[in-house]
Amino acid sequence: MKKISLIVCLLALLCTMGFSYSWSFQEMPLIAQEFVAEKFPNTSVYSVSFDYGKYNVTLSNGAKIEFDGAGNWLEVKDAVVFPRDLIPAVAMRYLDTNFPAMNIDKIKHVNGKYEVKFKNGWQVVFNDLGDYSNYEWVGNHSSYGD
Predict the structure, then answer these.
(1) DSSP string computed for 122-145
(2) Could you say which of 25, 57, 113, 138 is the most buried, measured as most Cβ atoms within 10 Å of its Cβ?
(3) What pTM, to 2 d.p., does this model score?
Protein backbone atom coordinates (compact mmCIF):
# COMPACT_ATOMS: atom_id res chain seq x y z
CA MET A 1 0.00 0.00 0.00
CA LYS A 2 2.86 2.37 0.82
CA LYS A 3 4.45 1.65 -2.57
CA ILE A 4 1.23 2.51 -4.37
CA SER A 5 0.89 5.76 -2.42
CA LEU A 6 4.49 6.64 -3.21
CA ILE A 7 3.99 5.94 -6.93
CA VAL A 8 0.80 8.04 -7.00
CA CYS A 9 2.59 10.92 -5.25
CA LEU A 10 5.51 10.75 -7.68
CA LEU A 11 3.20 10.70 -10.69
CA ALA A 12 1.27 13.68 -9.32
CA LEU A 13 4.52 15.56 -8.79
CA LEU A 14 5.71 14.82 -12.32
CA CYS A 15 2.39 15.95 -13.81
CA THR A 16 2.51 19.30 -12.02
CA MET A 17 6.11 20.00 -13.02
CA GLY A 18 5.26 20.61 -16.68
CA PHE A 19 7.65 20.16 -19.55
CA SER A 20 9.99 23.12 -19.22
CA TYR A 21 13.69 22.37 -19.29
CA SER A 22 16.68 24.56 -18.51
CA TRP A 23 18.91 24.93 -21.51
CA SER A 24 22.35 26.26 -22.25
CA PHE A 25 22.52 29.22 -24.64
CA GLN A 26 25.22 27.39 -26.60
CA GLU A 27 22.83 24.45 -27.11
CA MET A 28 20.33 26.65 -28.93
CA PRO A 29 20.26 26.77 -32.75
CA LEU A 30 23.00 28.99 -34.16
CA ILE A 31 20.48 31.33 -35.80
CA ALA A 32 19.02 32.17 -32.37
CA GLN A 33 22.48 32.74 -30.87
CA GLU A 34 23.36 35.07 -33.75
CA PHE A 35 20.06 36.96 -33.36
CA VAL A 36 20.76 37.68 -29.69
CA ALA A 37 24.38 38.68 -30.36
CA GLU A 38 23.38 41.00 -33.23
CA LYS A 39 20.23 42.59 -31.81
CA PHE A 40 21.29 42.80 -28.15
CA PRO A 41 25.11 43.10 -28.31
CA ASN A 42 25.69 44.67 -24.90
CA THR A 43 23.44 42.33 -22.94
CA SER A 44 24.19 38.91 -21.51
CA VAL A 45 21.88 35.91 -21.41
CA TYR A 46 20.35 35.39 -17.97
CA SER A 47 18.41 32.18 -18.61
CA VAL A 48 17.25 29.83 -21.36
CA SER A 49 14.44 27.31 -21.18
CA PHE A 50 12.84 24.99 -23.71
CA ASP A 51 9.10 24.63 -23.33
CA TYR A 52 6.64 22.96 -25.71
CA GLY A 53 8.98 23.21 -28.70
CA LYS A 54 9.99 26.82 -28.11
CA TYR A 55 13.08 28.41 -26.59
CA ASN A 56 12.52 31.19 -24.08
CA VAL A 57 15.49 33.46 -23.45
CA THR A 58 15.65 36.08 -20.72
CA LEU A 59 18.40 38.67 -21.01
CA SER A 60 20.17 40.42 -18.15
CA ASN A 61 18.26 43.67 -18.93
CA GLY A 62 14.90 41.87 -18.49
CA ALA A 63 14.06 41.49 -22.18
CA LYS A 64 12.43 38.20 -23.12
CA ILE A 65 12.77 36.53 -26.52
CA GLU A 66 10.85 33.54 -27.79
CA PHE A 67 12.24 31.35 -30.59
CA ASP A 68 10.73 28.41 -32.41
CA GLY A 69 12.51 25.05 -32.34
CA ALA A 70 14.58 25.97 -35.40
CA GLY A 71 15.82 29.21 -33.78
CA ASN A 72 13.64 31.74 -35.62
CA TRP A 73 12.52 34.60 -33.37
CA LEU A 74 8.79 34.76 -32.66
CA GLU A 75 8.47 37.45 -30.00
CA VAL A 76 10.50 40.07 -28.17
CA LYS A 77 8.99 41.71 -25.09
CA ASP A 78 9.95 43.80 -22.10
CA ALA A 79 12.99 45.24 -23.89
CA VAL A 80 14.20 48.57 -22.57
CA VAL A 81 14.98 49.54 -26.16
CA PHE A 82 13.73 47.52 -29.12
CA PRO A 83 16.28 47.17 -31.94
CA ARG A 84 15.12 49.36 -34.82
CA ASP A 85 15.92 46.67 -37.38
CA LEU A 86 13.73 44.09 -35.65
CA ILE A 87 11.00 44.94 -38.15
CA PRO A 88 11.35 46.09 -41.77
CA ALA A 89 12.50 49.71 -42.22
CA VAL A 90 9.24 50.73 -43.91
CA ALA A 91 7.29 49.54 -40.84
CA MET A 92 9.63 51.40 -38.47
CA ARG A 93 9.21 54.61 -40.52
CA TYR A 94 5.42 54.17 -40.31
CA LEU A 95 5.64 53.85 -36.52
CA ASP A 96 7.97 56.86 -36.24
CA THR A 97 5.59 58.98 -38.31
CA ASN A 98 2.24 57.87 -36.92
CA PHE A 99 3.04 56.80 -33.35
CA PRO A 100 6.15 58.75 -32.30
CA ALA A 101 5.33 58.88 -28.59
CA MET A 102 4.08 55.30 -28.16
CA ASN A 103 6.04 52.90 -25.97
CA ILE A 104 6.41 49.43 -27.47
CA ASP A 105 5.53 46.54 -25.18
CA LYS A 106 6.26 43.63 -27.51
CA ILE A 107 6.84 42.68 -31.12
CA LYS A 108 5.72 39.36 -32.57
CA HIS A 109 6.71 37.86 -35.92
CA VAL A 110 4.35 35.02 -36.77
CA ASN A 111 2.25 33.83 -39.70
CA GLY A 112 3.91 36.20 -42.16
CA LYS A 113 3.19 39.35 -40.19
CA TYR A 114 4.66 41.63 -37.57
CA GLU A 115 2.49 42.62 -34.61
CA VAL A 116 3.71 45.64 -32.66
CA LYS A 117 1.86 46.02 -29.36
CA PHE A 118 2.10 49.27 -27.43
CA LYS A 119 1.99 49.53 -23.65
CA ASN A 120 -1.38 51.29 -23.87
CA GLY A 121 -3.03 48.18 -25.37
CA TRP A 122 -3.13 49.19 -29.05
CA GLN A 123 -1.45 47.11 -31.72
CA VAL A 124 -0.28 47.83 -35.26
CA VAL A 125 0.02 44.94 -37.71
CA PHE A 126 2.31 44.86 -40.75
CA ASN A 127 2.74 42.21 -43.42
CA ASP A 128 6.07 40.41 -43.83
CA LEU A 129 7.37 43.18 -46.12
CA GLY A 130 6.56 45.84 -43.53
CA ASP A 131 3.46 47.27 -45.22
CA TYR A 132 0.76 48.54 -42.84
CA SER A 133 -2.15 46.13 -42.42
CA ASN A 134 -4.29 47.33 -39.50
CA TYR A 135 -4.44 49.03 -36.12
CA GLU A 136 -6.49 47.42 -33.36
CA TRP A 137 -7.18 47.38 -29.66
CA VAL A 138 -5.94 44.19 -27.98
CA GLY A 139 -6.06 45.50 -24.42
CA ASN A 140 -3.66 45.60 -21.53
CA HIS A 141 -4.08 41.99 -20.50
CA SER A 142 -1.83 38.97 -20.41
CA SER A 143 -3.68 36.95 -23.05
CA TYR A 144 -1.51 38.53 -25.75
CA GLY A 145 1.05 35.78 -25.97
CA ASP A 146 1.94 35.65 -22.28
Answers:
(1) EEEEEETTS-EEEEEE--SSTTTT
(2) 57
(3) 0.80
